[in-house]
Amino acid sequence: MSGVELVLAAGRVPAPVTTGIPWPRGALRDPSNLALVNPEGAAPLQTRVLDRWSDGSVRWLLLDWFAGEEERWRLVEGGPAHGPSPLSVRAAGDRISIGTGTARFELTPTSPWPGGGRLRLVDAGGAVRGAEIASLAVEEEGPVRVAVAASGRVGRLDLSMRLHFHAGSSVVRFEVALTNPERARHPGGIWDLGDPGSVLFEEVRFEFPLPGPQAPVVWASAAPSEPLEEFPAPFRLHQESSGGENWTSAVHVNRQGRVPLAFRGWRLQAGPIERCGLRATPTVRFSRGDRSVALATSRFWQEFPKAVSASDAGLALSLWPAESADLHELQGGERKTHVFHVAFADEPLEWVRDPAVVRAEPAWYAASGAVPYLVGEYPYAFPLIFGNLGAADASGEVAIGVYYQPLALDASGE
């Protein structure tokens, strides 16, 4: 194998990168011999086989590395070796200790959140419920990234979570899924909001306390195009609706058949400062002395309502905020996953708001055969297969028509 070219298709670097690459049948059997090289040398690489062909060779491979300023890489066999990783993991009993080289985290079932964080649910009656963790374990361990999985409950909801730690970084990626385990009743055969199996609640939030005698300092930016700006505490940015022209669309009705959204877009309040806008993708940093905690997410306005706040106690992210005019609802069997990043030291998070997308050349995906019926042609055109099922011709016979429509890719490969 001469190598696979990888390119930065979108987003910002430097940043940690996780991407999946397909392989032709029989081309790769042992990924441990792979190296990721660029003009600067070899980058530390972590691999995990996601799927294999029937002959045992690799079909899909997950790659992890830290992308520097470069925007092109080559994946080769038998490339130059890299030095030891600063990542360390130690599991003893129910305690997991993770060192990244710049930060250390201690996780237990009673304190599973990095930095002493807390998850809180306020139920429909106003009672505050904490999370109860039933299992906590290292799920993946390598030289670039460590993943810890946890499961349990918060209130009446099932909780599953993955925490991702990266070598040389204090930034932790949170993937938090909340599921309503109740079954929907479907009275009258209709699936509708307000079902007896639904769970209603007022708020779900993550809190990241940072106590101390020093006065807190809050820095925030509402959009990637805006620099960080100092604000007084208390600070709160609340995305109420999509910010689009159809923010009051009937698609947003609640169980009572009305749209409960109060205003278009977002509002910011910080002491005497009040601002508003349409679509926020914020970064907020809370500092006290030489310590700080910051958070960011790439899908803030898209997953409205959402809020981020800072008070004298620390930083908080409301996955479902309390400002909403109505209770939030998860239907029976419904699951919602939230993804966000938290930095527990003074590290930039701009790459979170504009995540790096790395891919191989389109021709490689087509040549791998891992995705059936995918064909690459210069200048990168893919066919779509449409089936015209059930169409009758002039004789009254039912015909099935299949045709191809090429799609030209833009510079990002989309």
Describe this structure in words.
3% of the residues lie in helices and 50% in strands. The strands form 5 sheets. The protein has a 17-stranded antiparallel sheet that branches. It has a 5-stranded antiparallel sheet with strand order 4-3-7-1-28. Strands 2-6-5 form a 3-stranded antiparallel sheet. The protein has 2 helices and 30 strands. It has 414 residues and is mostly beta strands. It has helices at residues 350-353, 362-368; strands at 4-10, 15-22, 34-38, 41-43, 46-52, 58-67, 72-77, 88-92, 95-99, 104-107, 118-123, 128-141, 145-154, 157-166, 171-179, 199-209, 217-221, 229-231, 235-239, 266-270, 273-277, 283-288, 291-296, 306-311, 314-320, 328-330, 335-343, 357-360, 381-392, 398-408.
Task: Note the main attributes of this structure.
single chain; 414 residues; mainly beta; 17-stranded antiparallel beta sheet; 3% helix; globular; disordered C terminus
Topology:
Elements: E1 4-10, E2 15-22, E3 34-38, E4 41-43, E5 46-52, E6 58-67, E7 72-77, E8 88-92, E9 95-99, E10 104-107, E11 118-123, E12 128-141, E13 145-154, E14 157-166, E15 171-179, E16 199-209, E17 217-221, E18 229-231, E19 235-239, E20 266-270, E21 273-277, E22 283-288, E23 291-296, E24 306-311, E25 314-320, E26 328-330, E27 335-343, H1 350-353, E28 357-360, H2 362-368, E29 381-392, E30 398-408
Antiparallel strand pairs: 1-7, 1-28, 2-6, 3-4, 3-7, 5-6, 8-9, 9-10, 11-12, 11-16, 12-13, 13-14, 14-15, 15-27, 16-25, 16-26, 17-18, 17-22, 19-20, 19-24, 20-21, 22-23, 23-27, 24-25, 29-30
User: How many individual β-strands?
Assistant: 30
Count of helical segments? Answer: 2
- SS class: mainly beta
Strand content: over 45%
